[in-house]
Design brief:
The radius of gyration is 19 Å and the shape is globular. The protein is α/β, with parallel strands linked by helices. The protein is 39% helix and 16% strand. The model has no long low-confidence stretch (mean pLDDT 96). The strands form four sheets. A seven-stranded parallel beta sheet has the order 3-2-1-4-5-6-11, with helices on both faces.
Length: 338
C-alpha cells in the first residue's frame, strides 16, 4: 500500500521506512531536512532509502499549509505515519516557536491531509515526556497526563488531543505512540548515547545530569520500528465499553488509541554508561551536574496494552543495543580500532 511517512530523514523515520520498503510498501518520505542537527546525517539516511524503487523523498516542511494540501491531494496515501516534529526537551527552552510551528501547526496540516485524503489510519509519534510530573511507576497509558514539565511535552500531549478530536469528528482512525528514550544505529547526535560515545572516544568528559541519579527506559530502535508497523496494521476501533463518567485516557468512543512503546525496564544511567564503557574499552571522564530544567529523573513504560493488542513488546537489552550502536558509529565515522 502507499504510506506517507513524515520525518523520513530522521532517526526513527529512516528505520521505519526501511521496514516498510522491505515488505513491499510504496513509501512517500517527507522531510524538511532542518538544521537542528547535522544535515549530512539526514541526507545519508535518505540516500539509504533512495536505493529502493518504491521510495520517494519530498522535501517539504509539514508546517507549509498549501504545500501539504497539494501533497495529500496528489499522493492520496492510504496510511500515514507522522514522525516529523521539533525534537528535544531542553531546546524547547531556547526556541519555543519552532515547537509551535512543527508540532502544532504542522500536525494540524497532517490531520487535515488525512481527513480529506480519506486515510484509513494515522499513526503519530507522541513521547514519554507527556508523563511530566507523574511519579507512579511504571507509566501507564491509563493515567492522567495533565502536568507536562516542558513545552515539548505539552505539544505532544496536544497532538494526542488534536488527533482525538479528528477521530471523533471525522472518524479518522488514529493511534498515538509514546516512545521511551529510543537509541541505536543512525541515532540523533543530540541524544546521550551519541554524545557519550563521541566524547569518550575523543577523551573529553561526559556531562552526567542529576549527579547520575537518572533512570531511563532505553528502547532499541529495531523494537520501536517493529512496534510501529504492528500498530500501523491494526487501525483502532471505538471502545464499545468506554465509560464517559470514568473516562479512560488511553481509549475512546472514537477510533483512537494510545500505546507506550518502551523496554519495560528502568535502567540506571550509570549502568547505561558502564555498558558503553565496556564496549569501547575505555572509562569515561564524568562531569556530574544538577538536573536540567524540563527534565525528569525517571521513565519506565508499562507495555501490557501494546503486547495484548499486537503480540509484541520490546526486549532488546542495553548490552546488545549499545554494542550495535558503537559498531555503527565507528563504521560511519571511520573510527579505527586501537
Amino acid at each position: 500500500m502507499k504510506i506517507l511517512v513524515t520525518g523520513a530523514a530522521g532517526f526513527i523515520g529512516m528505520h521505519i521506512c526501511e521496514r516498510l520498503l522491505a515488505r513491499g510498501d510504496e513509501v512517500i518520505g517527507v522531510d524538511n531536512l532542518s538544521d537542528y542537527y547535522d544535515v549530512s546525517l539526514k541526507k545519508a539516511r535518505i540516500a539509504r532509502l533512495a536505493g529502493s524503487k518504491n521510495f520517494r523523498h519530498i522535501e517539504i516542511d509539514i508546517a507549509d499549509r498549501s504545500g501539504m494540501v497539494a501533497l495529500f491531494a496528489r499522493e492520496r496515501p492510504r496510511r500515514v505515519i507522522n514522525l516529523a516534529a521539533q525534537a528535544g526537551v531542553r531546546y524547547s527552552l531556547k526556541n519555543p516557536h519552532s515547537y509551535v510551528d512543527s508540532n502544532l501547526v504542522g500536525f494540524v496540516n497532517v490531520l487535515e491531509g488525512c481527513r480529506y485524503a480519506g486515510c484509513d489510519h494515522l499513526v503519530f509519534a507522541s513521547s514519554s515526556s507527556v508523563y511530566g510530573g507523574n511519579t507512579r511507576m511504571p507509566f501507564s497509558e491509563h493515567d492522567n497526563v495533565d502536568h507536562p514539565v516542558s513545552l515539548y511535552a505539552a505539544t505532544k500531549k496536544a497532538n494526542e488531543l488534536m488527533a482525538h478530536s479528528y477521530s471523533h469528528l471525522f472518524c479518522l482512525p488514529a493511534t498515538g505512540l509514546r516512545f521511551f528514550t529510543v537509541y541505536g544505529p543512525w541515532g540523533r547526535p543530540d541524544m546521550a548515547l551519541f554524545l557519550f560515545t563521541s566524547a569518550i572516544l575523543e577523551g573529553r568528559p561526559i556531562d552526567v545530569f542529576n549527579q547520575g541519579r537518572m533512570q531511563r527506559d532505553f528502547t532499541y530502535i529495531d523494537d520501536i520500528a517493529e512496534g510501529v508497523l504492528r500498530v500501523l496494521d491494526r487501525p483502532p476501533a471505538a471502545n464499545p465499553d468506554f465509560d464517559r463518567d470514568a473516562a479512560d485516557p488511553a481509549s475512546s468512543w472514537a477510533p483512537w488509541q494510545i500505546f507506550n512503546i518502551g523496554n519495560h525496564r528502568a535502567v540506571d544511567l550509570m549502568e547505561y554508561i558502564a555498558a558503553l564503557e565496556k564496549v569501547l574499552g575505555r572509562q569515561a571522564k564524568k562531569n556530574f551536574l544538577p538536573m536540567q530544567d524540563g527534565d525528569v529523573s525517571a521513565t519506565y513504560a508499562q507495555t501490557e496494552d501494546l503486547q495484548r493488542a499486537t503480540g509484541f513488546h520490546p526486549d532488546t537489552s542495553i548490552d546488545v543495543g549499545v554494542a550495535r550502536f558503537v559498531e555503527w558509529y565507528k563504521s560511519y565515522y571511520g573510527v579505527k580500532e586501537e
